[in-house]
């Protein structure tokens, strides 16, 4: 059973999402919160698999909620998915930097919404190749961070290559084709790179790849 926490200050929107989720046999909404502070308290109480968090809320906003969850060892199993009305804005990149597994626009169709919850619960990042490319083109032209390069020297050549391809928006299957390896081996390279770079998920791996200078955005 996938346990979900809803954190959004719009009660009507929470009710709509809950109605969708409650119809699924493999998903359970364990709690709802109307602001970030309440959401953090409920996350610690219920330890959900997925926290759907509005990016702009009173008291504590979604970015800070994400940051606190990512830094709390007791919440290591909680995958934060950011909810936004605004699509690809600077807040989305900040949320990914803070540790979000991905994001959803609130007008997403129900089928895609339910699929996204299941993807997040598996620990996969909600960054389809098309989304990754848009993030790359619009928001990764940030100043390089010296601390982001920590751990790069521990990567094997194949792991480094896989990180570059992830940052270019390729899926594991596409990485496998490019590197002429099996999809399982591609996934292994990516997972080992995440471990060595202390990245929570694929989304964090993309951020680290650019912030470290391992990959440069076209507009840099």
From TrEMBL:
<dbReference type="InterPro" id="IPR011006">
    <property type="entry name" value="CheY-like_superfamily"/>
</dbReference>
<keyword id="KW-0238">DNA-binding</keyword>
<feature type="domain" description="HTH luxR-type">
    <location>
        <begin position="148"/>
        <end position="213"/>
    </location>
</feature>
<feature type="domain" description="Response regulatory">
    <location>
        <begin position="3"/>
        <end position="121"/>
    </location>
</feature>
<dbReference type="InterPro" id="IPR000792">
    <property type="entry name" value="Tscrpt_reg_LuxR_C"/>
</dbReference>
<dbReference type="InterPro" id="IPR058245">
    <property type="entry name" value="NreC/VraR/RcsB-like_REC"/>
</dbReference>
<dbReference type="Pfam" id="PF00072">
    <property type="entry name" value="Response_reg"/>
</dbReference>
<protein>
    <submittedName>
        <fullName>Response regulator transcription factor</fullName>
    </submittedName>
</protein>
<dbReference type="InterPro" id="IPR016032">
    <property type="entry name" value="Sig_transdc_resp-reg_C-effctor"/>
</dbReference>
<keyword id="KW-0597">Phosphoprotein</keyword>
<keyword id="KW-0805">Transcription regulation</keyword>
<dbReference type="InterPro" id="IPR039420">
    <property type="entry name" value="WalR-like"/>
</dbReference>
<dbReference type="Pfam" id="PF00196">
    <property type="entry name" value="GerE"/>
</dbReference>
<keyword id="KW-0804">Transcription</keyword>
<feature type="modified residue" description="4-aspartylphosphate">
    <location>
        <position position="54"/>
    </location>
</feature>
<dbReference type="InterPro" id="IPR001789">
    <property type="entry name" value="Sig_transdc_resp-reg_receiver"/>
</dbReference>
């Amino acid at each position: 059973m996938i346990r979900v926490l809803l954190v959004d200050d719009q009660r009507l929107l929470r009710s709509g999402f809950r109605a969708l989720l409650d119809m699924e046999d493999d998903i359970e909404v364990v709690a709802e919160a109307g602001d970030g502070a309440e959401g953090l308290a409920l996350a610690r109480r219920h330890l959900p698999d997925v926290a759907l968090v509005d990016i702009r809320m009173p008291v504590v906003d979604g970015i800070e909620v994400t940051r606190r969850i990512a830094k709390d060892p007791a919440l290591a199993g909680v995958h934060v998915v950011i909810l936004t009305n605004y699509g690809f804005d600077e807040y989305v990149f900040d949320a990914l930097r803070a540790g979000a597994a991905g994001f959803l626009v609130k007008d997403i169709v129900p089928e895609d919404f339910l699929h996204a919850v299941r993807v997040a619960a598996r620990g996969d990042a909600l960054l389809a190749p098309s989304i990754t490319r848009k993030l790359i083109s619009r928001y990764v032209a940030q100043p390089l961070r010296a601390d982001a390069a920590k751990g790069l020297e521990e990567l094997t050549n194949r792991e480094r290559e896989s990180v570059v391809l992830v940052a270019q928006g390729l899926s594991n299957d596409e990485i496998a084709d490019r590197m002429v390896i099996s999809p399982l081996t591609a996934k292994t390279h990516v997972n080992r790179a995440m471990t060595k770079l202390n990245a929570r998920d694929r989304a964090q791996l993309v951020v680290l790849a650019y912030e470290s200078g391992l990959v440069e955005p076209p507009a840099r």
